[in-house]
Amino acid sequence: MATLRVPQTVPSPAEDSDLLRKAFLGLGTDEKAIISILAHRNATQRRRIRETYHEKYGEDLFKSLGKEISGDFERAVFLWTLDPAERDALLVYDAVTKWQPGNRVLVEIACTRGAGELFAVRQAYQARYKRSLEEDVAAHTKGDYRKLLVLLLTTYRYEGPEVNMSLAKSEAKIIHTAISKKSYNDEEIIRILGTRSKAQLIATFNQYNNEFGNSINKDLGHNSEDEFLATLRAIVECLVCPAGYFEKVVRLAIEGLGTDGSSLARVIITRAEVDLKEIEEAYAKRNSMPLVQAVSKETSGDYKAILLALLGHE
Amino acid sequence: MATLRVPQTVPSPAEDSDLLRKAFLGLGTDEKAIISILAHRNATQRRRIRETYHEKYGEDLFKSLGKEISGDFERAVFLWTLDPAERDALLVYDAVTKWQPGNRVLVEIACTRGAGELFAVRQAYQARYKRSLEEDVAAHTKGDYRKLLVLLLTTYRYEGPEVNMSLAKSEAKIIHTAISKKSYNDEEIIRILGTRSKAQLIATFNQYNNEFGNSINKDLGHNSEDEFLATLRAIVECLVCPAGYFEKVVRLAIEGLGTDGSSLARVIITRAEVDLKEIEEAYAKRNSMPLVQAVSKETSGDYKAILLALLGHE
Question: What single-letter DSSP state applies at residue A185?
C-alpha cells in the first residue's frame, strides 16, 4: 500500500502552479508550500502540474525549482516530481555511468517493477538519453554482471498466474546442482532468474526449499560478502519479497555511519506510491523504532520534511 | 514498398464477412473468392473482418477456413490473415520449438522488425502461449546461440538517427580484433550487434570496411559453412540490407531441390505489406527471371494464386 496522502479535494493544476510560482517569488522560498503541494499529488497530478506550469509561466518547473532550492532537498523534490518511468530511467543512468559491482539499483529496478513499468523505463531512457538502456548497461559492465543485468533489464516477464510444477521441480534441481558446484555464474541460473515469471520463480524457490532443506538465499551464502552472490540474493529478494528487500536497504542506510541519504531517499521516493506501508511494517517488526522516527532522527530541515510527508506524516 | 494491392473502394468488414461465408457454403469451396478478399486487405482491414465474421457467424474465421481448405494454401491464408505481430509470434514459436542452428527465422524477426514491432511480437507471444518469448528461446537454445538470440529478441533498439563516430571507430576495431583472433563468439561482438542502433551499426560497419579493407561479412567467412558464422552474417544482412537478405532466402528456397515452400511463403507473406517490391527488384537483378515468374513456376493451384496475389499479380 502507498503512504502518499492526496487531499480529498485536489486543487486544479492551474491553482497548484500558481501557488508554486508564488512560493518561488519574493524574498526567500516557501519550502513548506512546495512540499504541501508536490508531496501530496499522485504521478498523474504531478505531471499535469508540470505541463500547466510550463504553459502558464513559459519555464520548466524543474528549472524554476532549481533556482530556489538545492542539495538533498532539491534532488528529492526533483526525483519525486518526475514520472515514475522517467525517474527510474534517471536512476538507471546514474547507476550505469558510475557502475560498481556493489551497486544494487539496476537489480532493484529490473526486479521490483512490473513488466510494463520496466518497458516504460526503457522508453523513457531512450527519450532522455537518445540511446537504449541496454546498450549503456552492456557497454558499462562486463562478464557475468553484464550477462545478468542486461537480461534482467531487457526481459519482459510473463505476469500470468500459471505455474508449471514439473518445470519448478526440474529448475530447482538445476539451480541446486549449480550451487552445489559453487558455479554461481552458471548460465542456467542466469537464464532461470532472468526469464521466468515471478509466479514460476516463487514455485521454483519453494520447491528448492522443500527438496533441499534450505532456502535458495541461504545456499547462496547469506553471510558471504562476495558481491556476485550478494547480487543474486538481491535478485531473489526483489522478485519474491520486495518489501523485505527495501526494508533491508533502508535499515542498512540508517544503520550505516551517517546516513546513506541516496538509498534512503530512493526507497521512500520510489515506493511512496506503491508499497511503502508494507516496507514501514517490515521495518517496525525488525527494528526498535518505527521508520518515521528513524528517518526523523537521521535527516533534517526541508529534506526531512519531504521524506516524512511522503511517509504520510507531517 | 509493399506489393499488396488494396482496391480503391474497400467493402465493409460485414460485406467481406458475408462473401467469405458464402465462399465456404455449398458444395466445394470458392478459393478464388477467399483470395480476392483476404489477399487484398491490409492488416487493419483483415483484423476487422475477423472480428466481424466472429460476431456475425459465432465462429472464428480461422476455424471456418480450416474446415474448407488445407495444406500449404491453408497455412498461407492463415499466416497472411493474422496480425503481423501475432504471425511473427507464431513463426517464432515454430522456430523455437524445433530450433536448430541453421534456423534463421529468429534472427530474421529480431533484426528486420522495428523496435516497436518486435515488442508487439513479444506481447502477442505472451497472449498466445502464456509464457514469455525469451523464456522459451532461452530454454530451447544453449551457449553462444542463446546469448545471441535472447539479446537480439529482447533488445529495444534506439531508432533515432544520431551516430557517434568515435564509438563507430572504436567498436569497428573491437570487432576486427575479435575476428582476427577467430573469436567469433566474443562477448563484445554479441554486445555490439545485440544492442546498438541500426544507424550506429551501419556507421560501424562502414568504418570497418574503410579501415580494414573488407566488409565485415567478408571477414566473417562469407564462404564458410560454419553455422554460427552464417548466423552472424545473417544478422549483419538483416540489419543493414533486409531486402538483400530476403532476396537470398527466396533465391535459395527456389534454387533448392524442390521448393522450400515455408521460407518462400514466409518472405512473401511477411513482406507483402512492407518491402516486397524491393525484394522483387533485388531478385530481378540477381537472377535470370522475375520473382513472379519463378514463384509461378515453382508453385501451383490455390497456393500459387495467393502468393501471386500478394506479389501484386493475379
Answer: T
Q: Which three cell numbers stand for residue A47?
A: 505531471
- Residue A55 at interface with chain B, using a CB cutoff of 8 Å: no
Which candidate from A119, A133, A162 shows the least CB-CB separation from B130? Answer: A162
> One fold for both B84-154 and B242-310?
yes
Chain A residue closest to B149 (CA)?
A: A151
Check whether domain B84-154 has CATH 1.10.10.10, yes or no: no
Regarding the domain delimited by A13-69, which CATH topology (the fold level of the hierarchy) does it fall under? Annexin V; domain 1 (1.10.220)
A28 labeled part of a ligand binding site: yes
Q: How far is B112 from chain A (nearest CA, A)?
A: 18
Q: Judged by CB atoms within 8 Å, which residues 152-171 of A form the interface with B? A: 154-158, 160, 162
**C-alpha pair distances (Å), A283 with each of A226, A234, B76:** 25, 17, 59
CA B104, CA B125: separation in Å to the nearest integer? 18
How far apart, in whole angstroms, are the C-alpha atoms of residue B254 and residue B260?
Answer: 7
Buried b (16+ CB within 10 A) or exposed e, A192-204: bbbbbbbbbbbbb
Q: Is B127 near chain A, with CB under 8 Å?
A: no
A192 has binding-site annotation: no
Cα distances from B212 to residues A121, B169, B172, B205, in angstroms, run 38, 11, 9, 10
Grid cell 515488442 in the structure block, residue: B119
H-state helical runs in chain B:
13-24, 31-38, 43-57, 61-68, 71-81, 84-97, 105-112, 115-129, 133-140, 143-154, 165-180, 187-195, 198-212, 216-219, 227-240, 242-255, 261-271, 276-286, 291-298, 301-310
Subunit contact B195:A151, Cβ cutoff 8 A:
no
B134 neighbourhood in chain A, CB within 8 Å = 154-156, 195
Which one is the CATH code of B242-310: 3.40.50.10190, 1.10.220.10, 2.40.10.10, 3.30.70.360? 1.10.220.10
The rounded radius of gyration (Å) of the Cα atoms in chain B is: 21
Among B115, B178, B103, residue whose Cα is nearest residue B141 = B103
Its pTM stands at 0.94
Using a CB-CB cut-off of 8 Å, the residues of chain B touching A119 are 119, 156
| Cβ–Cβ under 8 Å, residues A20 and A52 | no
CA distance A179 to A96: 28
Q: How many CB atoms lie within 10 A of CB B1?
A: 11
| Domains of chain B by residue range | 13-69, 84-154, 165-240, 242-310
Beta-carbon pairs below 8 A across chains A and B: 81
Q: Which helix (H) or strand (E) holds A86?
A: helix A84-97
CATH fold of the domain at A165-240: Annexin V; domain 1 (1.10.220)
> What value of ipTM does the predicted structure carry?
0.91
Q: What angle do CA B232, B234, B239 make, to 5 degrees?
A: 100
pLDDT in tens, A118-171: 999 999 999 999 999 999 999 999 999 999 999 999 999 999 999 999 999 999
Neighbouring C-beta atoms of residue A166, cutoff 10 Å: 8
Look at B134 and A122 and tell me if their CB atoms are within 8 Å.
no
Q: What is the pLDDT of residues B77-125, one digit of tens each?
A: 999 999 999 999 999 999 999 999 988 999 999 999 999 999 999 999 9
Q: Tell me whether residues A138 and B197 touch, CB distance under 8 A.
A: no
Q: Is A139 on the interface with B (CB under 8 A)?
A: yes
